[in-house]
Every structure is written in C-alpha cells, then in structure tokens.
Q: What sequence folds into this?
C-alpha cells in the first residue's frame, strides 16, 4: 500500500460521494484485474514510446502501418566500373545488426551501372531469403534517387515481394522517395527519422567501400604476383588467400612466407 494512502483515497472520492477505499490484493479475481491493468498500462507506455521514436516517426512519414523494426539497406561501390560490389546492412530496432551484414560481387552487370547492379543484389538477397524461409524486412532502403528506388522495387516484384515497402534517399538534397511519394518528401534536418536513415545510408556506403577497397587491393596484388618468376597459379592463390597486398608480403617473416611458397621461392 502507498504511504499516503489516506490522501489518495480522499482525492479519488468526488464531492458528495462515499469515500473510496484502497486495498492490496494478492489473489483471486481482483488480483487478475490488477495484473491486467498493469499489463495494459505497460503496453500503452511502450506504444507511446514507439510512436515518438525515430522508427515511429519514419513509419508516419512513409505511410507504413507500423514502425519498421527491421530495415535492410543496400549500396553499390566501384571504380569506373572495375571491381563492382554491393553491400547489405541490417538495422534491428534502429540499431545495426552486424552479424547480418552481407557483401556481394556483382555478377551480371558490366561497367559502372549502379542502378542495374542494385537490382541484381536486391533480387539475389530476397530470392535467398525466400528459399531459406527467413525473416523479411519491414522496409528496404537503398542509397540513391528515383532510379535506384525503381530498381529495388523491380527486383522485389520479380521475386513476389511487391508488398514489401521500399524507399531511397537522394544525396545532397536528402529527399526521400517512395512509391507513394514519387515526387519525394523532405524531413526536417533535425528529424530523428531522417538521422536514422542517413545513418543506414552511411553505414551501407562505408561497408560497400570497404569491400571494394579490399577487392581492388587484391587485384593489384595479383597483378604484382604475375610478374614474379617462380610464382605459378597454385602459389599465387595461396598468397592471395594469406595476404591482402604486396606490402603485407614485404613485411611478413621469412619463415611464414617459406611455409606458403617454399624457402627457395
């Protein structure tokens, strides 16, 4: 019971009404009602917190039925069409879930075609999700403008997931595009929802660039190995598996290198 029980009883009693009595219940029907009231109150608090969170604001801005608890973001990186790669980042409850991140080597697109490359990796991602019967996202997010959004929606349609919401964020103007807002919509620069999707965009970009840089350095390293006498396909493959660059080989201990290519080489 509360310490100020008498004051609360007086407050609850209206003018001219009989006094209200507070009692503590520990079992029976009354206890069940109190527990139900507590659960309802906690549920209402959680709902209000969700509605005022960045995810709640994003749901309202995009016209979603509920906050997008799982958002999957995509980006593409290449250098003049060379070593084109894609990235997938996953945010659960507004936070990055790095165990779910994925890297993609572009297989079907030649040259620097980011839109077509994006369509490829989105299709590959959700074809596999369907095959493995894993959780679908509440929102698919891509870095770019109308073209990138159209590519993502086309890929989703091709695997039977046209109902999954998709959005894109154009750089500089920070305009959000969706199927419902083809002309784009702008959120306040201080908007928590905008900051969330900027964070997802930046993380997908960082992850794609990191993978692209690794691929590019591996390719450069492979070219260096081609010019070394005594390094054939087998030893080249072993070195590429063990080291990222020629600089790493140069600083590797002799015994370590000898264990990979033999002391004579």
A:
């Amino acid at each position: 019971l509360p310490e100020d029980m008498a004051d609360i009883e007086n407050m609850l009693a209206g003018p001219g009404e009989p006094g209200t009595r507070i009692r503590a219940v520990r079992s029976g029907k009354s206890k069940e009602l109190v527990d139900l009231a507590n659960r309802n109150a906690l549920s209402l608090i959680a709902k209000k917190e969700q509605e005022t969170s960045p995810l709640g604001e994003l749901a309202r801005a995009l016209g979603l039925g509920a906050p997008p608890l799982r958002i999957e973001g995509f980006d593409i990186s290449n250098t003049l069409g060379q070593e084109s790669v894609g990235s997938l980042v996953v945010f659960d409850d507004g936070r990055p879930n790095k165990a779910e991140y994925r890297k993609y080597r572009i297989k079907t697109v030649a040259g620097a075609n980011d839109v077509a490359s994006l369509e490829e990796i989105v299709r590959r991602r959700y074809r596999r999700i369907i095959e493995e019967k894993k959780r679908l996202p509440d929102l698919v997010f891509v870095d770019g403008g109308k073209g990138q959004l159209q590519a993502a929606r086309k890929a989703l349609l091709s695997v039977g997931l046209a109902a999954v919401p998709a959005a894109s964020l154009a750089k500089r103007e920070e305009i959000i595009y969706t199927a419902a807002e083809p002309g784009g919509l702008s959120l306040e620069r201080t908007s928590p929802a905008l900051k969330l999707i900027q964070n997802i965009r930046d993380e997908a970009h960082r992850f794609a660039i990191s993978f692209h840089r690794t691929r590019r350095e591996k390719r450069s390293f492979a070219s260096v190995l081609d010019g070394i006498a005594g390094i054939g396909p087998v030893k080249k493959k072993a070195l590429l598996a063990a080291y990222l660059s020629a600089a790493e080989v140069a600083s590797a201990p002799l015994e370590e290198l000898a264990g990979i290519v033999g002391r004579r080489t």
